Automatic annotation (TrEMBL):
It is found in: Cell outer membrane. InterPro entries: MipA. Its main location: membrane. It holds the Pfam family MipA. Keywords: Cell outer membrane, Membrane, Signal. This is Putative outer membrane protein.
Amino acid sequence: MRILFVTSLFFIFMGIARAELEVGVGLSAVHVPHYIGSDESEEYFVPFPYLRYRSEKLTIDRNLIQGNMWRSGNWSLELSFGGAVKVDSDDSQARQGMEDLDFIIEAGPALHYYFLGDRTKNNALFLELPVRLATSTDFTQAQYRGFTFNPRVMWRRAYFMNGYEVRPQLSVGLRSGDDQYHEYIYGVKREFETTERPEYQARNGFGGYQIGYSTAVLSRGWLVAGFFRYVNISGASYEDSPLVSTKHNFTGGFAVAYLFQD
């Protein structure tokens, strides 16, 4: 979250003009599984700086940061970001005695094809093809962890209803990663082998499919938002890892923010 905010401010202060900008502060409650395939989870109650920014060159919206690199017709090439939270192995039954999972930060190019609208429009339907390089970090050191390819179709809309601005967003997609990425999360080294957790080496390939939905409602300087994401890893290349305890994961959250107005 700190990285997203600092990155956002960097681009804002570059002086990109003629942009749509909303700034505020808020409080969120989020339910997050330790990792995809884990039946253990954490709840976070986090104050956050709210920032929504949209221009020809940059879009920052909810958990999304995109920087436009190239555009031709319905196609565009953009920067895409993602990641995962830190997992303390002492708090995970499946990973007891193993090394912690550090924060994962993903970044890379994403090719978009717009069936409807474009990156600056509130009403848009598009295909996203992102290739992201992954790095794990505890903010004192960082290490490359492979790459992911998670294509998805996204639809977003914004409309007014009885004086409220409503912003729904829906996405459907697939997940995949290389062997280095899957090994970091699902691999078990021989030194961490137990009678219930045999040694395991993860493979590259299919990582499941996912469906996400979010809605934000704005009125009189306040924003209320909620989201959920469902991931099913049936048939995933790492499905047989001893660290996988469920094929179904839900991530969800709720947020309230106050927006500063001119």
